[in-house]
Backbone:
């Protein structure tokens, strides 16, 4: 209710101003709706928490005189915010059709209609309107921002990059890190299609926009690993850790695979020891424990995990310990471990693995653009007792 009151205040204010401005026109008073009384009648409905009746009053005020442009605009915005997009579109379309509008009023109405189309999901119509506004140099920065959103939705990454350059000039805001993500989107597509030349070009461009782009480093490592150059792949993967150590879980398995292919498992242990001093999650200690097991050092692996769990409590670490000891247990001890194993699995079942640092969205797979808030490069692996 309070939100509706604030939204309708511009409507009421515009109507009140118009009433005062035209109060001396006696020849119109007899044939027109009393705008002054309508103003107070609408406010009275608002104060009595009857917003629908208030809206009808203001609609009647607007319909009675075509010159109340600001009131039309305010009502259209109100309807859009209330989810009544069809009514907002009709109001703004009717407003644009009036030949008496000034160029500034028309461009404002065009922008609001574009917003209506965006809300309704009519992206092609919205795109046309925002392009028209850009051509007349009106509402430049917000129109470009909307176009970027549209091209993201359509996955037209080249247009998104081109428009981002224009937006940087119009707004003064930097978009290099986001444009690097667009390049990575094209690189992912090229990798899937086996287009090596396009893949190389996109990754090169991504690093030109953002030399610290984690995603570009991951894709570069994957490219080199697929080409059989594990040594170079390791360099890219380990660079991810230097760029943002929070993304270690995204590359540690690939690093291990590359060291195995090079017959350098001992260097993997050195890498894990180095990382554990900097990383506060469970991932590196799980990999080190597995590495010790694969080297036949079962006792050392268990002792290592027990020691780690004392300083870094972790449900997944406990799960590893239980599963490792299950194969060595018999009778009642094994039954007890099975109960604990089932409880741990139940606790971890459906637990999210990733979280958006901007809006709190959680999921089980990584998204480089958050599905909820649409921000880029803000979804990271979750760390904590029950995480990773």
Residues:
């Amino acid at each position: 209710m309070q939100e509706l009151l604030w939204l309708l205040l511009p409507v009421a204010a515009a109507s009140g101003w118009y009433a005062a401005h035209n109060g001396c026109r006696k020849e119109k008073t007899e044939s027109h709706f009393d705008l002054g009384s309508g103003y107070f009648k609408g406010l009275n409905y608002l104060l009595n928490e009857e917003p629908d009746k208030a809206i009808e009053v203001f609609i009647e005020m607007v319909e009675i005189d075509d010159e109340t442009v600001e009131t039309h605009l305010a009502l259209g915005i109100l309807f859009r915010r209330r989810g009544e997009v069809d009514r907002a579109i009709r109001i703004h379309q009717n407003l644009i059709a009036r030949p008496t509008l000034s160029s500034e009023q028309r461009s404002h109405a065009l922008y609001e209609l574009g917003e209506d189309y965006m809300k309704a999901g009519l992206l092609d119509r919205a795109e046309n309107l925002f392009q028209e506004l850009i051509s007349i140099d009106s509402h430049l920065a917000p129109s470009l921002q909307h176009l970027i959103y549209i091209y993201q939705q359509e996955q037209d990454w080249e247009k998104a990059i081109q428009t981002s350059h224009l937006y940087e000039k119009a707004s003064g805001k930097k978009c290099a890190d986001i444009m690097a993500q667009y390049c990575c989107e094209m690189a992912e597509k090229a990798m899937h299609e086996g287009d090596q030349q396009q893949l190389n070009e996109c990754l090169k461009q991504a690093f030109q926009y953002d030399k610290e782009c984690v995603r570009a480093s991951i894709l570069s490592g994957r490219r080199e690993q697929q080409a059989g150059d594990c040594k170079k792949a390791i360099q890219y993967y380990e660079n991810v850790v230097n760029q943002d150590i929070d993304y270690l879980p995204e590359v540690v398995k690939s690093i291990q695979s590359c060291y195995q292919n090079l017959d350098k498992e001992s260097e993997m242990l050195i890498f894990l020891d180095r990382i554990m001093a900097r990383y506060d999650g469970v991932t590196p200690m799980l990999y080190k424990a597995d590495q010790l097991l694969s080297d036949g050092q079962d006792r050392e692996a268990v002792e290592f995990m027990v020691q780690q769990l004392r300083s870094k409590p972790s449900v997944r670490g406990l799960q590893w310990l239980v599963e490792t000891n299950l194969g060595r247990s018999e009778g009642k001890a094994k039954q007890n471990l099975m109960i604990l194993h089932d409880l741990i699995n139940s606790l971890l079942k459906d637990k999210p693995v990733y979280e958006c640092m901007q809006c709190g969205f959680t999921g089980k797979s990584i998204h480089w653009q958050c599905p909820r808030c649409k921000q880029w490069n803000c979804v990271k692996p979750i760390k904590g007792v029950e995480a990773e």
About this structure: Residues 292-349 form one domain. Residues 13-34 have pLDDT under 50 and may be disordered. The first helix runs from residue 2 to 21. DSSP finds 20 helices and three strands in the chain.
